[in-house]
Amino acid sequence: MDTLICPKFEKAMDLINKRWVGMIVYQLLSGPQRFCTIEGSIGISGRVLSERLKELEQEGIIKRDVFPETPVRIEYSLTEKGMDLEPILKQIEIWSQHWMK
Amino acid sequence: MDTLICPKFEKAMDLINKRWVGMIVYQLLSGPQRFCTIEGSIGISGRVLSERLKELEQEGIIKRDVFPETPVRIEYSLTEKGMDLEPILKQIEIWSQHWMK
């Protein structure tokens, strides 16, 4: 690993660093989910979750699908870019199992 | 990957989530370093770096060695727990190379 800190790495760190981002992506690894399901499973406030989902959509990490049913159904899922975060989260999981008490 | 969010995973995320933690660990992967070297390479303020190093020492991720020379030499390095973060950072590096513009 290079000692020079690459701006791309720094940008990625900033993105993943953001509170709740890892948890939201982790949660969506199991498939598309509705707002209230994500909200319930990670104990985040609705306001903050809504903010994060918008940011992650802008970053191209998640997408928002609207199904024209009655009532309308909205689901969030990972894009390819978002799915590619899985190895990172997997490594965090391995590390936490080994080192966290 | 399980859909249930494990408290250990959450704790690990909180730790890695903290601004600058990833960068400091990344920087120390190349070996023990002095305060001013870390400070210079990641463009962090001395005050914040000092705080983070203390926290990381308390978490058992880095250690601080004092060499009784004149002037005294102090070096920071990764513990085994800290070295084990390398696969996470490596995956972040791979992801950022592929997806960050």
Structure in words:
Two copies of one chain form a homodimer. Chain A is mostly helical and 101 residues long. Chain A has a single domain, classed as Arc Repressor Mutant, subunit A, CATH 1.10.10.10. Chain A has helices spanning 7-17, 21-28, 35-42, 46-58, 80-83, 86-99; strands spanning 62-67, 73-78. The first copy, chain A, has a two-stranded antiparallel ribbon with strand order 1-2. In chain A, β1 (62-67) and β2 (73-78) form a beta hairpin. Chain A starts with 6 loop residues before the first helix and ends with a helix. The A-B interface holds A 1, 3, 5-6, 8-13, 16-19, 22-23, 26-27, 29-30, 41-42, 81, 84-100 and B 1, 3-6, 8-13, 16-19, 22-23, 26-27, 29-30, 41-42, 81, 84-100.
